[in-house]
Inverse folding.
């Protein structure tokens, strides 16, 4: 959520009391309360289908993207009218809200499949006119996540091919079967704090005055040089 103070927009983190230090988390699959937390439609797909053992920062970035996506596609801002207060209300005039299937799907893995299809096809969000100013931010985040998932998929495929080669031709495999490093915490460098925040620095319209208290380091350096 956000608040407007002296004409400036300030984002507010909620439920921070439920946060955990990453150092205190373990890779114990039996402690699902440490990993698979939250409301399913807003959870990272890797936690839903069990392919990710540990809750990572990139999962929170993915969840923030889903929250923004649902807010911008399910709701609209109603201006105050005579005798009525304005505010955010459910979007009107649609036969079905976008991504409603995410809320109707009873199985974690089924929901995870919906999300990976969303990224693999780069589905173009049908935004409410009230949130059109968020489009560039949403699209940039969507593309960062899509590129990250693609990079991880390619890396995993290469690793499986190397393992198969080792089994079939152990004497000839050589360096080809050695594990190749991949930064899983950022999906190959695509999903980072910078990816989350960078686009927000260039928002226009309603969100032009959004205050970013901790911009990416590269942005701070550029601002200092200017």
């Amino acid at each position: 959520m956000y608040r407007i103070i002296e004409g400036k927009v300030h984002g507010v983190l909620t439920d921070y009391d439920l946060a955990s230090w990453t150092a205190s988390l373990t890779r114990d699959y039996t402690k699902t309360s440490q990993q698979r937390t939250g409301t399913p439609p807003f959870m990272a797909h890797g936690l839903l289908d069990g392919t990710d053992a540990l809750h990572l920062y990139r999962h929170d970035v993915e969840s923030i993207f889903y929250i923004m996506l649902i807010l911008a596609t399910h709701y609209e801002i109603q201006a105050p009218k005579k005798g009525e207060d304005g505010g955010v209300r459910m979007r009107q005039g649609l036969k079905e809200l976008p991504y409603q299937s995410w809320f109707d799907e009873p199985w974690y893995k089924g929901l995870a499949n919906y999300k990976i299809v969303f990224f693999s096809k780069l589905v173009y969000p049908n935004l409410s006119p009230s949130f059109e100013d968020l489009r560039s931010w949403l699209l940039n985040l969507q593309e960062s996540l899509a590129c990250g998932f693609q990079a991880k998929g390619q890396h995993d495929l290469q690793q499986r091919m190397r393992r198969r080669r080792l089994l079939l031709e152990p004497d000839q495999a050589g360096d080809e079967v050695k594990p190749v490093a991949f930064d899983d915490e950022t999906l190959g460098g695509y999903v980072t704090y910078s990816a989350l925040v960078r686009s927000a620095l260039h928002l226009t319209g309603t969100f032009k005055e959004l205050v970013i208290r901790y911009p990416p380091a590269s942005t701070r350096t550029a601002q200092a040089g200017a």
